[in-house]
């Protein structure tokens, strides 16, 4: 402040001169006091008003199916910590790194593959100033399924003899899930793909020869991984249907013969497989019992 004063009049006595001197001294003191106040308030960044902490370049990326890496910078050295969760409520805090840095890097591990995560980045400097990022969204990559299913034929048992209609079944499992099981007979598909457990197919053995045959199963998962079971060898033994009737002729007594008393009646019979019995008849009625 610059205050100007002009003292008027001619000082003829000591009182007037003294008054003027005191007045001028007082003005000089006021001017010096106002100049000091302006100097104290200029550029005041210290004391109880520390410089605010700011954050920039906040990024987060999925570095693997179960890990996320975050990085950011701060205007002053500060610590590092990541808040995270599957919603904007977060709920979990990563490990606090108390090292004072301006360039920050933090990793989260043990996460779930193929999942959306929300992150906030935190830093606090030595003056307890804090900086928090906005919400960062990261989707962890899905872990490729490289594990093949396991599969084994459970029925019929190895070395079994089979005939007629037979159920062929298998046990199959996978770390993610079995998509289908294909049964095979002697290397050729037996039935269609079975897409639901329990895995089985009906085999009509009369379509195969009476001999040894090989059964196996191929299991696949949704990722295309497949496994072929060990072979199971069985023997087919089907009975051939007998459609040929026996032949039979009366061999005694001779035709047109005259008989009396006790007479033996006999016949000759044969069959492509075997004669089971012969029943003699007299005038259409059974004569005696079955001859086997």
Word description of this protein:
By secondary structure, the protein is mainly β. Helices cover 10% and strands 43% of the residues. The protein is built from one helix and 20 strands. The protein has one helix at residues 14-41; strands at 55-64, 67-85, 92-93, 97-108, 116-124, 130-132, 136-139, 150-155, 161-162, 165-173, 178-185, 188-189, 199-204, 212-221, 226-228, 232-236, 247-252, 266-270, 281-282, 285-286. The strands form five sheets. Strands 1, 2, 3, 4, 5, 6 and 7 form a seven-stranded antiparallel β-sheet that branches. Strands 9, 11, 12, 14, 15 and 16 form a six-stranded mixed β-sheet that branches. Strands 8-10-13 form a three-stranded antiparallel β-sheet, with no helix packed on it. A hairpin with a 6-residue loop joins β2 (67-85) and β3. It is rod-shaped. The N and C termini lie far apart (148 Å).
List the helices and strands and how they pair.
Elements: H1 14-41, E1 55-64, E2 67-85, E3 92-93, E4 97-108, E5 116-124, E6 130-132, E7 136-139, E8 150-155, E9 161-162, E10 165-173, E11 178-185, E12 188-189, E13 199-204, E14 212-221, E15 226-228, E16 232-236, E17 247-252, E18 266-270, E19 281-282, E20 285-286
Parallel strand pairs: 9-16
Antiparallel strand pairs: 1-2, 2-3, 2-4, 2-5, 5-6, 5-7, 8-10, 10-13, 11-12, 11-14, 14-15, 14-16, 17-18, 19-20
